[in-house]
Amino acid sequence: MSIFALVFILSIFGATAQSSKQQSLKLIKYKDNINAPLSVIEKAFIKEVYADKYNEYIVNRPQKLKDLKNLLRNRITIKKMPDVTKHTKKYTLLSEAGLFNSYNKALTFDKKYVKNSFNVLKYNLNFFGRGTKTYRIDGTPYFIIIKSQHY
């Protein structure tokens, strides 16, 4: 069957071929705040997740460290949105995402949200995908909003 015959048959049945070409990603623009050293809390969060691989996978990889600083300082927001909790079906729960425990098998889910000790890095969230992602912290009116790194 020729390509013309195939196109004709598809057009009869209302099917059309479309390109699923995605737009190219834009360069990441870092704010000046990523030049500052890790805070005590940031360092503790990263060490908790990467455990004995902290030096090898983070300290010895300047770009990875830069990306994590950018993520923690500029791209993640945790917001209380009690009115949105009525519509929880459309948001992924943190428990559904699971733990990112590849380097530290002892990681556990937080039983509740405590602002200064909640380590978002321990969860298997889509930090580096396309677009903004939103997750609900189970049993709370708090949502984790991860802004895209591509503006």
What sort of overall outline do the alpha carbons produce when their principal axes are compared? globular
Q: How many distinct beta strands?
A: 4
- Give the structural class: alpha+beta
Based on the structure, what is the oligomeric state of the protein chains? single chain
Mean pLDDT across all residues, rounded? 84
Global Rg: 21 Å
Biggest sheet features: 4 strands, mixed
| Range of helix content | 25-40%
Low-confidence stretches: 1-20
Strand order of the largest sheet: 1-4-3-2
Query: What's the SSE pattern?
Result: HHHHEEHEE
Number of helices: 5
Task: Outline the fold blueprint.
Elements: H1 3-12, H2 40-50, H3 54-59, H4 62-75, E1 76-80, E2 92-93, H5 94-97, E3 133-136, E4 142-146
What does the model show?
It is a single chain. With 151 residues, the protein is of the alpha+beta class. The protein has one domain (32-146). It is built from five helices and four strands. It has helices spanning 3-12, 40-50, 54-59, 62-75, 94-97, and strands at 76-80, 92-93, 133-136, 142-146. The protein has a four-stranded mixed β-sheet. A hairpin with a 5-residue loop joins strand 3 and strand 4 (142-146). The N and C termini lie far apart (45 Å).
